[in-house]
């Protein structure tokens, strides 16, 4: 029998929220949520991230436009932009290096910063949901990443990884089913046949989910949706942008 408690129940109820009440998020709530994010694991304590809380309606409207016209960016009371940040480390380390070569611009440190910000954001998401708020991640913030970076005044070695709408839910979607546990939990080595084979089971689950969600208008299986995603070029400007921002120089 699987264990259960309040934390597990909260995690298993997660769903993306795309409709928000016209109700503010207090400064205290925001501080508690970001503070919980800061308590996530971080590689060697580098804490290589910065969060920009956007509450100005005009700025939210601009970010919505740059992110593909997603209206909930404008509707939510707080829009968080989660940034990987190696600028701060470079600036504070300089006096101690005394001219020695520094590797803040290495590919490894880009990975460290990106993982750090993702871990912190998910901690914050769970904290928000524990307070009765909801969130949705916005990868579209990278659609026009150079323009977003300029709009927010991001310096060299800082890039926006994703956005996050935060607020009180006005409506809750059904919980989208995930891959079977056997597809993602492998023991003592990668099990390729199981990993792929379990998708057949999941395809039937997602067919049923899509039928229910669309009132029978769609029954597209997950594998077909993923094939369509891979067939579309997506944000191919990222490599050039990151290089221009000073990342991946080593």
UniProtKB/TrEMBL annotation:
Record has Iron-sulfur as a keyword: no
Boundaries of every Nitroreductase domain copy: 14-168
Top-level taxon: Bacteria
Assigned protein family: Belongs to the flavin oxidoreductase frp family.
KW Nucleotidyltransferase (keyword) present: no
Listed NCBIfam families: PRK10765.1
Pfam families listed in its UniProt record: Nitroreductase (PF00881)
PANTHER family membership: OXYGEN-INSENSITIVE NADPH NITROREDUCTASE
Keywords, ordered alphabetically: Flavoprotein, FMN, NADP, Oxidoreductase
InterPro entries to which the protein is assigned, alphabetical: Flavin_OxRdtase_Frp, Nitroreductase, Nitroreductase-like
Protein name: NADPH-dependent oxidoreductase
